Amino acid sequence: MVYDYSIEDILARLYSNEKIGAVSCRCKVLNLKGFWARMQDVEYAIIAFIQGSYNWSSAVSLWGSCMAFKKEAWVDIKGLRENFIIEDMNAACELQEHGWKVEQSSSPCYTIVPNNFKEWKKQKLRWGSGLIQCILSHMKFILKIL
Fold first, then answer.
1. What angle do CA 104, 112, 58 make, to 5 degrees?
2. Which residue in 17, 81, 109, 121 could disulfide with 2, CB within 3.0 to 4.6 Å?
């Protein structure tokens, strides 16, 4: 679920600087019932804080739940890659490798998260595998930003 003001903020950020190629909204948990959903809400808050602090240079990743690209940037990276486990992080790396900046909106969008251990573990394994895939695929870029 995305609010109108979140879309307005994304578009304002996207067109505030010619170097910005993509902007995404931070996620907030919609189904805040149960331990695992609450833990993921805490995790999202921490990630949002870290991502937002990079807006002065360029965010490390995009949030896949709500993101917008400038057409030129989208064409430059040839869209999202189907062979990447976490295509939003891959897109952010590719954009930055092509000279584009990535930002995070301060406005939220809402998502439904796993609410049991089995689904939570499955998500974490996918995210961990995707992170390793991105690091290996973009090693030069990762070493450059460190």
1. 15
2. 109
Higher pLDDT: 53 or 112? It is: 112
CB 104 within 8 A of CB 49: no
β-strand pairing of 20-29 with 67-69 = antiparallel
DSSP string over 76-108: HHTS--TT-TTHHHHHHHHHHHTT-EEEEEEEE
How many CB atoms are closer than 10 A to CB 67?
21
pTM of the model: 0.85
Q: Say whether 132 sits in a helix, a strand or coil.
A: helix
The predicted pLDDT at position 57 comes to 64
The residue assigned the tokens 């304002």 is 12
Domains of the chain: 4-145 (3.90.550.10)
- Amino acid of residue 5: Y
Closest residue by Cα to residue 87 from 120, 114, 70, 64? 64
